[in-house]
Amino acid sequence: MRKAERTKALYAGSFDPVTRGHLDVVRKALATFDHVHIAIGANPRKERAFSLEESLRLIRGSVVELWPEAGADPDGPLFGGALQVGEYTGQSLIRYARVIGATHIVRGLREATNFGEEFNLHGLAERLDPSVPMVHFICDAQFLHVSSSTAKELDAIGEDIGWLVMPCVAEAFRARRAVAG
Length: 181
Known about the structure:
- There is one protein chain.
- By secondary structure, the protein is an alpha/beta fold.
- The chain has helices at 20-32, 52-66, 93-100, 112-128, 148-156, 167-180, and strands spanning 8-13, 35-41, 83-88, 104-109, 134-138.
- The protein has a 5-stranded parallel β-sheet with strand order 3-2-1-4-5, sandwiched between helices.
- 32% of the residues are buried.
């Protein structure tokens, strides 16, 4: 049993919207793995605030806002190709991990209430394919209370969400409100 020569982590979630907490996990994954692939999945239990296409754009925009060195071209490679952004629908996380050649699956932990759900997902993923280990990163303390749901809820009542999300995401919420209002 040895480490893969080239590692590729799959970080999957709904990212609706991408938050500063998600980006903290991306930062840690980029420091750990050779390549990181962020993938948006559709959760049938959740109604999306942003379409998959909008979310893809917001992830890329957030990455470039936080790390300008990631790349200036909005559609070009991020960090010289070390970071990719995509989406997976109609297939399992494990199947998608195989398709993209992921050697690991990355998940973020914010608080103890996340642990039960992550523990179940870990067991399921291991049962489906034990060759793709799941790795968990705990968010930095400043991001422990940051979630997509919180961003949506605070935005809905007119509170500032700049501490939760990057400026491009806050602007997307403002634009959405302007169209609805």
